[in-house]
Every structure is written in structure tokens, then in C-alpha cells.
Amino acid sequence: MSKIQFHIGLITISLVSACKTAAPPKQTVAETQPLLEVGKEQFSIDDYQDSYNKNKFASDSTKELTPEEYLPIYTDLKIKVLQAKSEGKDTTLDYREEIFSYRDQLAKNHLVDKDLVEKLTNEAYNRLKQEVRASHILVGVSEDASPADTLEAYRATIGLRGRLEEGSDFADMAARFSKDPAAKTTKGDLGYFTAFQTLYPIETAAYTLPVGKISQPVRTKGGYHLIKVNDRRNNRGMVRVAHIMVKVDTAGTAAQKESAKARIDEAYTQLQNGAEWNLVVDKYSDDRESRKNGGLLPLFGTGQMVSEIEESAFALTRPQSYSQPVLTMYGWHIIRLIEKRPIETLANMAPSLRKKVVTDSRGKVIEQANAKRLREKYAVQEAADQWQQVAALADSTLRTGKWDYQRAVSADWSTVTLFRIEQRPYDALSFLNYVKRKQTPRPKDASPAVVFRRFYNDYLNESLVEYEKEHLEETNPEFRSLMSEIREGVLFSQIMEEQVWQRSLSDSTGQRAFYEKNKARYNYPERAFATIVAAKDTQTLSSLKKTLATSPYKLERKSKELLFPLNSAEIGNQQLEALNDLYIIMEKNADYVVEIAGYRSADEPETISSTRARNVVKYLNARNIPILRIIEKDYGSFRQSAEPERNRRVAFQFYSQSKSDVEKVYNAEVPGAVTIREGYFPKTDPAFSGFKWQAGEQMINSNGSFLWANVAKIDPPRPKTFPEARGTVINDYQKELEKQWVAKLQEKFPVKVNAQELEKIKR
């Protein structure tokens, strides 16, 4: 039995009653009668209706309870909560800490302007439909600069804009005047971008300006920007590619760079001649991570990948087609298109967009709107004279982040009130400690007075948020109802854990006695012990049957071979990389067994192939892969390869004791291609639909899938032993304990139901 689930919902009930009489009209309010009394507690029909609306599917998610059917469940909950309170469980430290944790978490959701978040989410999605190419010029000035410095930067920006409007070239002006470190190279070009890929003010300017136009000064933390929109296009969506990468050291010699180019050209030629992509990746790619998966890279969109790879990927139109070699700062690449996906629907993207909206630079818009709302909601009284006293403490150490008010003055700031929120005073000492705690180094042009005032505004806004948080139950009926439900839920969970759940699990004597008394309940029906396999085609099904015929099962999965120099069995750096991949596979798959096969050239010593295999075994043993999971074989000079260097190898073949591993390997390339089930099946199991109820092998075609069953035996019905029935016994015993306990509680907390109020529920 699981612990109580907390259902969060918004229930708004408006009760308006009025009667018409002679003028002037008078409003009458009928006295509310309780629906029921439990012990000395009374519960109204509204409280019951609220609980019912949230939990009417609690007992069976497929069947909605009627309001009358829910009444005993509701009463049962209230009785248990009252018992928990009578035992003082609502006064313990653990209870208070748990409630505080829930409250803190839930309060965050009620302190955000949900309408504004939704508005910004929709705005972001509409922007994501387009990609904008823009350029910018930055006139640097920090957000904490003095008013004079800020005004000077603004005027300089206006001056630059005037020159641009008169015909000066934007790229030339960016290279000459922009404080963006990359401007001399990029000439201010930001490339194509979409929502969330640049600062929100720059993004907004880019999405609202016509192509070719230049913005008014746009303020960010770094200064003032002039934005020019160069182009717009529809969002190209997301693309997934695989790549082959040959690293190029930018500081390398000309010979090294030529060698890298020759290597990527060789890989490209092999692909052109029909070589399998994965084999070429395995042989040439220097990207160790992607090489394990055929060079596969994560999905990406505009602005999320190196531009050369991005443009090459989006230029490909046919899945599995590949590009010519492409040079990036990392080296040479061949890009293979796997798939393209259009932008997702708003319904699918909304949850992740809401998170981004709150956490990216537009989150500042939400903070500012919330601060404005709270200043209008609560009475705030600021003490200008006291602020002037405190403001005098600002000095140049605020720029270095080493400011300390105690060095400046020894006054008792705890007696100075900076401001009041609804008459609650907030003293200067708390603010000064806030500054000391929050300070960080600032730009050289930061004004100590501006920094100090910013800290004050932040402290006041954060104090308003905390005040709102403390008084949520008073101002927010939804939050008040939810917290009441959570408090009851925690008490219910604690009392049930103590009286029912833990007792039923730990009382083995009681479990056995309950089983003996109710043996007739616990029986196995007639069952077949079988393996049932489903595949999309007969070829795959035949391959699966062959694989499952012998245990351990041979898997269609291999690891990279180790190649050794002539007459060498030593494991060096080249071999260690492949061995590490082998170790990771064995570590992640506990049922795997690996065959380690050593080979040699005909002109090498006879013992060298076995030594190569033995050294690999030693490596795995040293990394805690037991010998029982290793099959060691020495093939000597047999099975000679057409590629001479491969004759000096150690090869790996994986096996597994688990049919689920076989299923995973078959589904690795095509998810859901096969399913394998093994165990006992009753006659009523849908998996047996279409099969004959008899031992032996059978194959059928059902709804386009090919199914094979191997029924080892059919067991007749029989009673379950106690170990076999224990899980069900515990569940039933739990219900019995709860039933007995509730009967005692009903004597302690008698229930009285108001028949007239109950009739209202029935209607």
C-alpha cells in the first residue's frame, strides 16, 4: 500500500445569497451547518466537497466515486488524522521540518506571476519559429556606472547611430568602435540566432526591428548596443548527424596538418567506394565518445553547434547522405545526416519553455514585475534620512568585493530602521550584513553609490517576497487549502506507517497466522512455463530462435579489436583505449560473458597469441571483472585475415545469461523490434492468445507480428506456499490490521452525519 498522494488543484466556490425585500435591500447569510462531526471536530460540506473533487478517483482511477461513496473514505482519513494529533505527532520536530520543506517548495509556485510567465512563454515560442541574423555595436558601460558615465555612454551610442543613419558602414563601425572583444574579427555579426540564444533585450530588438533597420540604444549589463537586423528565415528545426573527425592541432606543423587532411580524404574515399560507415568511423575518427555509437552526435539546432558543422548538416537533404570533408577549429569532419525534425508544438515545448523563461535573462522582467506588484500590494514606508546615514558607508572597496561596514563605523545599526512593510520594521544592520554576504567584485567603472543603492533595492524587493511568502495562507485561499491538505497528509502517512504499514511488514508471525487462516484465498491457476518471442519478420524470429537455443546466448555485439605490432603482446596506450571500452561494457552489463580470442601471424611464435589473450584477461581481472565472466581462447594462426595487421589481434565476442540482454541488442538499432518474455503464464494471459494450450513449440502470425512460443511444461492448479503468497498475504494482512484499528478509533471518535446536509450531496 502506497503512502498518501497529495493532489494539487484549484477549487473556487462562490457562495452568494441575497433576498429581495423592501428598499433598502438587506443581505442575509444562512448559518452553515456541519456535514459531519468526528469526535469534537466539525467538518463543513464545503470542506468535504473540496476534498471529494480532488480525490474522487482515489480508490480506482478508472471509476469515479459518487459523493456519497466517498464519505466513508473522507471520514476514515479525518479519524486517523485526529488520532495522530491526539498523540502529538503534529508537534514533533520531524513533522515541523517536513511541513516547512513542503511549504517552502510549494510557496515558490505561488510567488510567480503565472500570467506573465505564460505570456513570455508564448512570445518565446513564436520567436522560435524564426531565426534572425543580426549585428551589433557595443558601447561599454557597466550597469553600476555613475549616472554621468552612463549618460556619456548613451550619448556616444546616439552619436554612432547618427553616423550609421547617414550612411556609414555598420561592419566597419563595429570593427572600429565596438567593445565586443570579437568585433574586430566578426565585424559585429552575431550570426543567426533564435529565442534564448542571446540576452533578452538584444533578442527583443532583433525580433521587433524590420530587416535593414538600426535600433535605438539597447541597455544590457555590458552597456548600450545598437542592433541591425540583416536577415530573417523560418526555423530550420533540429538535426541529428553522425561524424568522422580527424583532429588537427592548430599549433601543429605543416606536415602534421597535411597528414590530417590526407587521413580525412582517405576516409572519404573509402566511403565513396562503398565502405560501411561504422567501420570507417571505427578506423578513422578521433572523437572517442561518438565513435562508440557510429559517430552519432546529439540533436542540435541553429546556434548550438560549430557553424561549419551546422551549415554542412542543414545543407544535407537525404538521410544517410554525407558531406565532403569540412574543416573546423577542431579538425576535419565528414558529416552524415541521420534525421531532421521540425520545431515541436507549443503543447510539447511549453513545460521546458516555462523553465527557461524563469531562468534566462528575461527572468529579470519577471522579478521586476513581481517587485512592482508587491510594492502596490503592501504598504511600504521608506526612511529617507536613515538611508542617507547608511549610504555614507559606501566606499571603493565595494568594487573589489571586500567591503566591511565594521571597518567604516562602529554605530549600532540594529536600532536604525531603513523601511517598514505593513508596519514591520527592517533594520539597517540586517541590510549591511546582506551587502557583506552578497558582494562580488564589480567592473572598474562601477560607482560605489550606485552599487550600494542597487543592493538596497534588491534587499527591499527580497524582503517583500519573504513577507508575501510568510503570509500566503492569509492572502491565498488556494495555498491555504493546499497546506491544510498537506498537513493532514503528512500526519496520515506517519500514523499509518506506525500502526499499519510497518507492522504488517515486520510481523512475520502475524503474516503466517493470517496465511494459515485464509489458505483458500491463495492458489495458482493452471499455468504454462514458456518463452514467448515476438518479431516484425520471420527472418528476425528465426535468428532469435537460433540465439536462444544455447545458453549463454551469443549476442550480435562486439567490441573494438586490439591490434598488436609484430611479435608483441604488450598492452600499450593504443590497446588501453579499446580495453577501457570493453571494461565499461562489462561493468554496465552484469550478465555479460566475454570471449577473448588471441590470434597471431603465421611467422610469429606459437605462444604469442595465447599471451595476448592472457594479458587482456589479467587487465579485466585487475579491474574486478571475475574470471567466471571470461572465456579465454587461443586461435593461433588459424582464421587468417585478408588484412595482415588483423592477424595480430585479440577479438571479443559477447554472450549473456539473460534473455533481456538479447532483446536489448536486437532493439538497439530499431526500438521495439522484438520482445522476449519468459516465465509462468496463466491461460487468461493475452500473450497466449492464439496459441494452443500445450507443451512444445508453436508459431503464429498476429496483427502483423510473428510470434513464437516454446512451452516447456504446463503445471496444474495448486495452492501457493507461504513464501509464494507472501506479497499478497502482507497486503491482505495490512487491510485486516487497518480494519481492526479503525474500528477502535471509531469508538474513540464517534461519527455523526447531518442527514439534511447529506441529502444536498446526493442531489
Describe the protein in words.
- The chain is α+β, with helices and mostly antiparallel strands.
- Among the domains are: 238-342, Chitinase A, domain 3 (Roll); 378-475, no CATH class; 524-549 and 669-719; 552-656, 60s Ribosomal Protein L30, Chain: A (2-Layer Sandwich), CATH 3.30.1330.
- The chain has 28 helices and 24 strands.
- Strands 15, 16, 17, 18 and 19 form a five-stranded mixed beta sheet that branches. The protein has a four-stranded antiparallel beta sheet with strand order 4-3-6-5, with helices on both faces.
- A hairpin with a 2-residue loop joins strand 21 and strand 22.
- Helix 3 (93-110) packs across helix 21 and helix 4 packs across helix 13.
- The protein is flat, with a radius of gyration of 37 Å.
Amino- and carboxy-terminal Cα gap:
33 Å
**What count of helical segments does DSSP give?**
28
Strand content: 15-25%
**Structural class designation:** alpha+beta
Low-confidence stretches: 1-30
Strand element count? 24
Shape: flat
Q: For the record, what CATH class of the domain at 238-342 applies?
A: Alpha Beta
User: Helical residue percent?
Assistant: 40-55%
Overall pLDDT level: 91
Largest sheet, in brief, is: 5 strands, mixed
Q: What is CATH's topology name of the domain at 238-342? A: Chitinase A, domain 3
Integer-rounded radius of gyration: 37 Å
What's the CATH architecture name of the domain at 238-342? Roll
